[in-house]
Amino acid sequence: MKRIFSGIQPTGEIHLGNYVGAIRNWVTLTDEYDCVFCVVDYHAITVEYEISEFRKRAIETALILLACGLSPEKCKIFVQSHVPEHTELAWIFNCVTPIGELERMTQFKDKSKQHRANINMGLMDYPVLQAADILIYKAGFVPVGEDQVQHIELSREVARKFNARFGNVFPEPQALLSMAPKILGVDGEAKMSKTLNNYIGLLEDEEVMWEKLRTAVTDVNRVRRSDPGNPEICNIYTIHRAFSDNRILLDVDKGCRTAGIGCIDCKKMLFKNMIAELGPIREKALSLMKDTDYVIDVIRAGAKKCSAIAKATMAETRSALGILA
Ligand code: AQP
Predict the structure, then answer these.
(1) Is 56 an active-site residue?
(2) Which domain holds residue 154?
(3) How many angstroms does the Cα of residue 191 sit away from the middle of ligand 1?
(4) What residue's CA is closest to ligand 1, atom 35?
């Protein structure tokens, strides 16, 4: 069975972008692949964070993955720092990664602007740790949103450079995109992101969700209700595609282009479909919140299985490097 790896940061509330861009796809893929899903806490410390909340955040992130439908029977779910071989392999990969490649990463440039007072080495090294996360499991596929594609290409390059120098140890992983690889935030401009606070949270109250959706930017050229709109450039239509069936999409497309429906009508239809899918996820999450011991058991068991794979890869890697055993 081919192996998949993907990760999510415990940096805040999981949002619609994470869900339709990545997690929902992960659930489907567990039927076909040997899947490894990780709460990447060491990635999250590259920016400022609330120390007193951090443990809780890691558990909550795993909890949401379970609530979204990932089953510990069908995949491994764990926390990155519980398998320290990830950071060990990252050090080795640092020694084959050109600094110039890291400096040109879009995420590094964006984050350097967002965190001017703390442009640390970890921020730049983020994609190298990500390469280690993936390659320590020799994963061939990485289901991610569009924002991560550049990093996966770097992982391929790291694998190539390592293999060329030390022998063929690692596969070159490929990104797997979902049907909604890029969801913009409610501002209609930037990628929906936890840190940009432009998101609709998966577990938010329905009233809060509706208020965010109601006021979200649509096609900016559609100023009046009577103006025809263009669904192709409307973020709300992109989200509709992720939640609504073809019949509704056709109605919305036609209604928008002919000004037969207004943006609020369109958003109401979307909201109904979103709630139908997200309601049960919220219920499951609320019930898991009463049993966090179960969630901790799941991530401990996941780490145990992942450790065995990671240790074997590290033994092979050290041997390829000529390190004294
Ligand atoms: N807006 C999005 N559209 C589609 N996919 C997305 N992903 C994230 N945002 C979108 C995908 O979700 C997975 C987990 O990503 P993450 O933990 O890096 O989440 P984030 O929201 O991007 O986190 P941050 O820290 O809030 O984001 P930044 O650092 O960008 O400000 C990934 O597969 C990602 O592609």
Answers:
(1) no
(2) 3-182+292-321
(3) 8
(4) 145
